[in-house]
Amino acid sequence: MVNWSALETVFLDMDGTLLDLHFDTHFWLEHLPRRYADHYNLSPEEARDHVVPMIMAEHGSLNWYCTDYWSERLALDITGLKAEVGDRIGYRPHVTEFLDALRASGLRSVIVTNCHPDPLRLKLERTGLNQRVDDIVSSHQLGKAKENPGFWQDLHQLAPYNASTTLMVDDSFSVLESARDAGISQCLAILAPDSQQATRDHHPDIPGIHHFDEIIPDLRLRRPLPSGQ
């Protein structure tokens, strides 16, 4: 499923890959419409019917992930509202064990996320995730979402990498397809990103796992690339 011996760098998505996507699902589909209803004196149904289609219309764009954009569009403090339900932020199963094994293997680990820097800080405060990886890059630093083909070229500015020795792990098939098209040699899908939702079907061309315990044993057996590779 993963050829660990052929790798130098592992790019990791955050939400739905390392952290339970339930926090974000609950916020955008439940908490935000409810607080929007409170603010504008609407029924929960009216608020949801107004807010959710507006959000979905931006799917895949940088705006989709941008708290500044939604704070202005909805005239609400999105980061503040996210903090209200911050107790829902948490790791997916076996993630800390996987990250420890990744570090022990000698591979370079970089979180590559579409998360805006403001909620990113909130999530790092809650989890200490930044202490478990070598680097973190937000797509907002580059002005392009990971779904954008140009993102992967620009990523070299902040996290130089050799595409032929890099693995990308993500719960988004569209992101994985973008990474694959950019030449990243190995891609792996997460099929159970949200602890409160049903698991997803496999991608026809990209291998997938439900949880990291499926690949930790092979990672621990990794033999590094020969010197000079």
TrEMBL record:
Taxonomic lineage of the native organism: Bacteria, Pseudomonadati, Pseudomonadota, Gammaproteobacteria, Pseudomonadales
Q: Which UniProt keywords apply?
A: Hydrolase, Metal-binding
Official protein name in the record: GMP/IMP nucleotidase
EC number(s): the record gives 3.1.3.5
GO molecular function terms listed in the Swiss-Prot or TrEMBL record: 5'-nucleotidase activity; metal ion binding; phosphoglycolate phosphatase activity
Domain of life assignment: Bacteria
- Database matches in InterPro entries: HAD-like_hydrolase_sf (IPR050155), HAD-like_sf (IPR036412), HAD-SF_hydro_IA (IPR006439), HAD_sf (IPR023214)
Organism equals Marinobacter salinexigens
GO biological process terms held by the UniProt record = DNA repair
Cellular component GO terms, alphabetical? cytosol
**What single Pfam family name could you report for this chain, choosing any that match?**
Hydrolase
